[in-house]
Amino acid sequence: RRGRRGGAGVVVLSFLVAKKPHPTRRRLQSLTRQGSGEMATRSQKRLLREKADMEKAGMFAVETIQTPAGVRWFVAVKGADATFYQGETFRLQFTFSEEYPIEAPEVIFLQPAPVHPHIYSNGHICLSILYDGWSPALRVDSVCMSILSMLSSAEAKKPPVDNDSYVRNCSSNPKATKWDFHDTKV
């Protein structure tokens, strides 16, 4: 883009346009084009890139659906070898708003949730990066890796001490909870 001064203090902008978009840009444009012919939002583009990267890496199985509340992903995570969760597979549900990645997704375990000191029986997860510690630089795969790391470092397979009272009194959205991140050992 080049700018030059026009008459009477007006800035005139001229644009250099490439005749053919880069192949990656063409592929992204075709992936993000919606039925109405409009381009997808930044959030949707980011999610498409993340999903493509995750499928290419092959570490996690991802299923997506569109809901009135936003995009929802279901990600299968497998317990690491030589841990309490070896051989077990759990499903995480990610719900994304249009503000993603500026705003963290809502992340919960679907039932049955793993029995872990930082995972409540309703699937809510006490992990700082899902709340106050969120950064737009984080991605779905890095969240999944953090959760797997948390599972792998468990010293015992037991529920949180306050599980029953929390589950009885909490909101259905874990982001509505004011979490206290003080316990780094499990």
Can you tell me about this structure?
The chain is an alpha+beta fold and 186 residues long. It has a domain of 129 residues: Roll (Ubiquitin Conjugating Enzyme). The chain is built from 4 helices and 6 strands. Strands 3-4-5-6 form a 4-stranded antiparallel sheet, with helices on one face. A two-stranded antiparallel sheet has the order 1-2. A hairpin with a 2-residue loop joins β3 and β4. The protein is globular. The protein starts with a strand and ends in a 17-residue tail after the last helix. The N terminus is likely disordered. This is UBC core domain-containing protein. InterPro entries: Ub_conjugating_enzyme, UBC, UBQ-conjugating_enzyme/RWD.
List keywords for this structure.
186 residues; alpha+beta; 25% helix
CATH fold group of the domain at 48-176: Ubiquitin Conjugating Enzyme
Low-pLDDT sequence parts: 1-39
CATH class wording of the domain at 48-176: Alpha Beta
Structural class: alpha+beta
Physical arrangement of strands within the biggest beta sheet: 3-4-5-6
Helix content: 10-25%
Main β-sheet, in a few words?
Answer: 4 strands, antiparallel
Number of alpha- plus pi-helical segments: 4
Distance between the termini: 54 Å
Average residue pLDDT:
82
Q: Which range does the strand content fall in? A: 15-25%
Output the radius of gyration: 21 Å
Gross morphology: globular
- Supply the CATH architecture of the domain at 48-176: Roll
Order of helices and strands: EEHHEEEEHH
How many strands?
6
Looking at CATH, the homologous superfamily of the domain at 48-176 is: Ubiquitin Conjugating Enzyme
